[in-house]
Write a structure and sequence with these properties.
12 strands; elongated; Rossmann fold; alpha/beta; 6-stranded parallel beta sheet
Length: about 325
């Protein structure tokens, strides 16, 4: 099949949408399909359109549907879609109705969809592989990684603020990687770093470097207010790094309801207590590690590849039967 993959993230971006688009391009090409990645659909010849983000890719989905009324259209739902736009934005709602299939990155997202769209939904967990070369954690510190661009939905300074509440004896150091997406958030991160000896903001780094820093950390903190299914979470699980996460469906749909490392959204004190326990309570840290290890099969690249293969075969069977794909 000729696949056109639409992502709102431009070439060179290190945003989650672009990371996902690049990985899916590799998967689809490995499955024997021809793939073109675009920011917007411009009448490319294709047998299938995959649109990442219902609202931001609406114009591409609508243009494709207008020119190919019976053509297969996959709309991939992000956290912004599921936990924001679907309730209020008519364009995002229309994108769901136009789609042949809806891809979600974790199963709890299905509850956000109108009941009549549940049959369209397919769950494809985001896969990850650990970086090559084992890296042991630093001996003198208890490094906690934050992989998040500085934007409000990520609540990216929550771990730094929680670290301020730890006892003087704590060896915890917050190592934060991610670009500042506004001057205001850059100033906020720099001010936090200047005033908080436990916090280091490294800015945006090459992906390989960020993953090596993650793999050499003792924990990942994922403090987002919403997520569709974060790449950073899959990357931590694949690298064997335990996670402390805000209690949101985007993380619970991957880690499971019983995972012991959740804290309420924006609750600095609760996160500080989890950080303290992870550093000082070996049994608690082991429970976090075991919880992540249990779900590691979900982020296996072979599983993601099989899920895409099954979805495209399903769409091809329907389209070939109707004559949309010859």
């Amino acid at each position: 099949m000729r696949v056109c993959l639409i992502t709102p993230a431009p070439p060179g971006s290190r945003s989650g949408n672009r990371v996902t688009a690049i990985r899916w391009t590799r998967i689809l090409r490995a499955l024997g399909h021809r793939v073109a990645v675009r920011e917007e659909y411009r009448d490319d010849r294709c047998d299938l359109l995959v649109a990442l983000h219902a609202r931001r890719s609406f114009s591409s989905a609508a243009r494709y549907r207008d020119r190919h009324p019976g053509g297969p259209l996959v709309v991939v739902l992000t956290g912004t879609d599921l936990y924001g736009d679907l309730d209020t934005d008519p364009l995002a709602q229309q994108a769901l109705e136009m789609a042949s299939r809806l891809v979600l990155l974790q199963p709890l997202g299905i509850a956000q969809l109108p009941a009549h769209l549940h049959d369209k939904a397919r769950v494809i967990y985001q896969s990850a592989t650990p970086p090559p070369g084992a890296r042991a954690p630093r001996a003198g510190t208890f490094d906690v990684c934050v992989l998040a661009h500085l934007r409000p939905v990520k609540d990216p300074l929550r771990a730094a603020r929680a670290a301020r509440m730890l006892p003087a004896s704590s060896r915890i150091r917050i190592v934060h990687l991610g670009a500042a997406l506004s001057p205001e958030m850059e100033r906020e991160a720099l001010a936090e770093q200047a005033d908080n000896p436990r916090y280091r903001w490294l800015g945006e780094r090459p992906r390989w470097r960020a993953l090596r820093i993650l793999a050499g950390s003792r924990l990942l903190v994922l403090s987002s207010r919403t997520e569709g299914g974060a790449n950073a979470l899959s990357e931590a699980i694949a690298s064997g790094v335990p996670v402390l996460a805000s209690r949101i469906p985007g993380s619970m749909g991957i880690l499971g309801a019983e995972y012991p490392g959740y804290f309420p959204v924006e609750d600095t004190g609760a996160l500080a207590e989890l950080l303290r326990r992870a550093e000082t309570d070996a049994a608690f840290y082991r429970a976090l590690a075991e919880g992540c290890e249990r779900v590691r099969p979900l982020v296996d690249p072979a599983r993601e590849r099989l899920a895409w293969d099954e979805l495209l075969r399903e769409l091809c069977a329907v389209s070939c039967a109707s004559g949309t794909i010859s």
